[in-house]
């Protein structure tokens, strides 16, 4: 597919300040994706912009040369007259108009022409950590959820437990291996267009809502969720309260006394945790309910709802 025609001279374009607050989110995405410092992330963005800028300047100059060649190659209209028309004047014909050499080209000042010699910012060599002799690898590999899930936690937002399940972490690992590390798209950040990593803030298409998870998935995922909540700076009180919530659900009597026990617990977890997240991040200051205090009334209501749902499905068969 041919590239779109440029409509203006890009020679004088000035690179954005990738170290400014407007690009903080973009730098964070590059840092997480490439494992580099904030300064190196800003340099990476500048180098990417510079390469793209040089390509645009080259395209603009090529476009101008093609326009000039096309004007020079246009045939002059032939003089076609009827046989009885008067003879042409004996005066010498006026020379054909000389094509305007500067047509379509913006005047370039010396300062702007220097911009054509832009060169990519030198890429800094990534630092490598030292080796500690005698220190062994961890006995178990800690699964790593996606950058999207970690960003949600860092912003104290609700995130589905699926991202912390075995399948969710496996997808994140496969994506981190196969995805390119320097692909960006334009995004509006704080009212300013900025480069943004394509995959850093993208929800997975395979995500499963909490209500549809098995209890085993919930039990496995909650441990990793609590670990990363601590890593992302959540207050100890909130992490501890949520840990109590999962612990009490794990050992609740309804899992033994009801044939729908696990389904009830999974649905309760999904609904209550979503409500809790909505309230703790609400702009309205308020005291949020203790999520670790399991509501028997809410469990009973969910169980009745599931029983009714099963009856309706059985009747519809």
From TrEMBL:
Residues 82-92 have a biased composition (Low complexity). This is Uncharacterized protein. Residues 33-139 are annotated as: Disordered. The lineage of its organism: Eukaryota, Fungi, Dikarya, Basidiomycota, Agaricomycotina. It comes from Agaricus bisporus var. burnettii. Residues 51-65 have a biased composition (Basic and acidic residues).
